[in-house]
Amino acid sequence: MLKELRIGDMVAKIPIIQGGMGVGVSLSRLAGAVAKEGGVGVISTAQIGFEEKNFEEDQAEANLTAIRKHIKKAKELACGNGLVGVNIMVALKHYRDHVKAAVAAGADVIISGAGLPMDLPALVSEKVHTKIAPIVSSKRAANLILKMWSHKYDRTADFIVVEGPKAGGHLGFSNEQLNDIESLDYDNEIKNIIDCTKTYGEKYHKHIPVIVAGGVFDHGDIEHMMELGADGVQIASRFVATEECDASDAYKKAYINAASSDVKIIQSPVGMPGRAIRNEFIRGLEKAKKPISKCYNCLEKCNPAKVPYCITKALIAAVKGDMENGLIFCGANVGRIDHMTTVHELMCELVE
How many domains does the chain have? Predict the structure, then answer.
């Protein structure tokens, strides 16, 4: 059995965080089910309000409404077990508003990446219930964030998520690194990040749990990460092929039917490379840009006139089941997913 995960005064019986997946792939149903099993269920706030009635007219307000709604619902589904948190991308245009809304709604944790969350401590007081964690991909990034937090806010992270090169979605690596993952010696980088967090943990007289993500597929992978010194793992792709996942059945089938050869590194409007399934949408992008007729105000630095496609439109199409026009982010091991399961069955498999 795996040891429990302690984040400050909070405890998750199982040291597994379900990675946040947007748009709409990990909402309250999935996050609540994972928390109910004793893990940490995570809701992605990226355009989370896409199903709200006022989304087309006012994305910002619709997203804030949905953040409150889904955190409340996930906690109800968790039945007092595990933890419920959110993943909030730094690259979002309304990043600060999302963080404040999540805190007000009682999120247990906020995990923040797709950029460096330098100002996150300014938005989440140490006096509130919510714990905060940056996503990092290197010791350099970890030290940069923790040094800034210490200098500017005299505090440190409650935990850290280390996202490796085999993760899905947006990646903190160059295309060259992603094309030669084996040369990265990433196990050693994980150890270096753990050592870095220990330095700041000693300074603030606390243990900073390190959670490793990217390519964690089964119990053997979890044990390996624990042997490296990790306190837990974050897993995303495997939770897509569950009955509780908030995505459409067509989205889940795309994961089940995908082969390893179908995975491709693409360039996202976020400004980072991303790993996705090479479907009709991706094949079309290889020939020409997708015209953008409307801006959905999702990213801080997106220029609709220059980006190759609208990421909001593409992600919403995918989660609703339009595979020809949808972008399907995935992890490197998606080709190993071959059947539907439930969150309960998956968590049992991962633990035992």
Answer: 2
